[in-house]
Sequence to fold (750 residues):
Amino acid sequence: MSTASGDPTTGTADFSATPLADTSFPEEWESGQESVPGEYATGASATERAAADGTERAAEQRQSADGPAERAESGAALPAHRPTRGRYRGTSGGYELILRVDVDSVPGGPKVLRKVSGDFFSTGGGTQAYFGSFVVDAPTVSRTATQVVIRGTATYTWQTAYTLVRVTVPRSRTNQRPGAATVEFLRPPRQLGATYICPYVSPYFRTVEWEQDSVAGAVPFLSYDTGSLPQPANSPARILSVPRAYAEAGIELLVSGTANVIANSQNGWTNTELHGAMETNFSLWRNAPQWKLWLLVASSYEGMAGVRGIMFDAADSFQRQGCAVFYDLIQGAGPEEQRAMLRTYVHEIGHAFNLLHSWQKNLATPPAPLGGNNGFADLSWMNYPQNYQPLNGNGGAAAYWGAFPFQFTDNEQLHLRHGSYRNVIMGANAFATGAADIEPELFDEPLTDESGLRLGLRADKSGLSFGEPVVVELKLETTDLRGRSTHNHLHPDDELVSIAIRQPSGRTVLYRPLLRRCVDQDQTVRLDAGRPAIYSSAYIGYGRDGHYFQQPGTYQLRAAYLASDGSRIVSPVLRIDVRHPVSQDDLRLAELMMGEEQGKILALRGSDSPSLRSGNDALQEVIERHGTHPFAVYARLAKGLNFEHEFKSLSPDKTELTVRPPDPKSGIEQLTQVVKVSQQGKGVDNLTLNLAARRLARAYARQGDLEEANSTLDRLVRHFDTPAYKPYVKDAVRDQADSTKARLTEEFGG
Fold:
């Protein structure tokens, strides 16, 4: 809700609200019809309105007695009535109302959710500001030969006494122009407040301008015939494009601008490169709430297999404006590939509308109910096919596609059509909406646990200095001697693991990763006597809500892993103490580490983005002035990983790809110190050490020194070849080192 103190349900306006950054609408918003006065024209007296209300009810009674059939005087059947649904727009008393009516449809049309909702905007001079939203969840609907009357009690985003809503819509034929809706707000029992005459705008509940670019060589998805492969009997065969899939949910995607083909690189795209590409190439982009989004058909995601798409625009104050799909993984001309491409596009755009994965909806603010099997039983665009696990019968991708009707669930459609304005529009509320507060009970231990799995959460240190990056290790192991199979997506960025953080204030928040990668690939792992556990390391000090450890004190952490069968495995509580700074030097170091830009750089493991320049300068100061301090190893890690890798940026005309080549010398300088200090037990955790050593070896190979690259990997193997580590851990490190040697020899051996 805005800061305006008036109330649009009474007509009292106040123009102290902050103006909207974008008050323009797509052209079709301006194509509404002229107002058609209903029984209650603005300005009518209370007596006239009461008389009209009695006339309306009398007409309804006659209609009920006489029956609904209508015929022209000649005896010929009249054209069918238009469905009472769609978007309307009107003004009154300094406010604008965008009304959505969802009580009727046509055979084969979008499902009727039986709701009425609206968004209010206060207007003054040349400015407009969002005020608030409302929804009528269970209206009563009555019809006569001439009109449809919808009544119900509304829920608002602000407090008002005018809780009753009455919407009167003239009935029109398919060969007639739609009439305007009259919207009245009443204080119980019958005190009339504001009235709005809202001309018809569109059959769609919301309209979004969609701009799409692709890299050279990538063929953007067009459409898929759902009858090409077996599908549910109750799902009609049809040609589905991405806009058509959203149209079936009542949302219009208007293709906007030119579909540009931009330069590509053989290497994959990183998170920061994608965000930079959006800022350069999204011609409609602004750091402001607006019904506009951008999708890039990129080649591949750098650094991780199995990522089909990503909603990457979660790093700033105006999120959910950009997403990407990765062509190298989803390409193909066959029906199975085309079907999967359609799902990936719709899925990633769904995130831009603030839709969570099916198994995460209880982590939203406010939480939404999960479907069966902790959400894995949902037949939705927002589930993963390989995760599908119905309440009865076999799950997996084949079962999903055999039952999926190519649609959103009812709750998802409710959000898309009738969700509060700021919760849906791109660039407004952050992903998962509102604050990050969660209910601690969401992470309570289950009453019974027969999953055969156990989740551990630990940190190398129980006490951290103020400003020290917080890194945790997750361990998933089997408790069943017969072994268990599940997925190996153990990193919280993959969104099948959640971490709750109880801060010293008592507030419990959810760690939300900076970027949302959709690892939409079946990666099953067998945990048994030969491999009883898998591990992952995660930096959780900074995420989409900023820094999570901003004050000294005791923090309590708990993780939850959602297994392939829908079991929710909860870890024991981990306590972490963040110590108070004891000197001005400690405080200065903490300030250098805890800026917003520094947090993003640490989360992204380095970046050349111009928008993060001051953060890079701060980390460089840590290295130059405090090089022997324990914090310096984290700054060196981010810098070293970034130097070892190229960085891509696009020219403003979208024709040239500028590639800053790797700087192996600088990478070696920084990563050598990271590995050395960490092998002495004074640096990063073992999993991050493994990563740093393998990237250091790659930097040596880039310089043509394969001998030193192999020696670096041999030293890594020897570091873990001690009785302190279990045999399967040593085997895993040795296998990784050997495969890295083979790749480096193949790539740089010549």
